Amino acid sequence: MDILNLQFTSSEAEEQLIIFSVGNEEYGLDVLRVQEIIRHVTPTKIPHAPDFVEGVINFRGDVIPTICLRKRFGLPPRTDHEFTVIIVIEMNGKIVGLTVDQVSDILNIPAEQIQVTPELSARPETQYLKAMGKLGNRLILILDLDKIMSINSQEQLEQIIAETNPSVTQD
């Protein structure tokens, strides 16, 4: 399936999502936030980075951090990387890679099939969930990308990257 060449079309009454899996769950994120989906590459480790930050990779000449969603969600590491990909996204105004187990679909979910989850998103361990989409018998957890990493963690990471790689400049 050539996911990168699909035309993104959607009506206002639908939300168009990239669907991916981490562990046994399906997650979705807004396709408009996705820059690119690339094959998994082993990132360069960064000392003193938050544990869910795998490291940094070279993405089109820029050094970007990669976040392992397995670690961020408290799941054990995966040893088989056959289908693992990095979804390059814009998050909090920065380009970041999200390492996921597998990308499966691009779906349009009707607005009436999306339920906001305020009672879950108040808890620290689920603060990154924005809503749940119901599509047939599938339940898709929709992520709030700007909450995957706290502002403090992001600032700490940017400082570490700048110290590790002097050619990287901060905004």
Automatic annotation (TrEMBL):
Span of domain CheW-like: 14-154
GO annotation, biological process: chemotaxis; signal transduction
PROSITE patterns: CHEW (PS50851)
Gene Ontology CC: cytosol
Superkingdom field: Bacteria
Protein name (Swiss-Prot/TrEMBL): Purine-binding chemotaxis protein CheW
Organism expressing this protein natively: Capillibacterium thermochitinicola
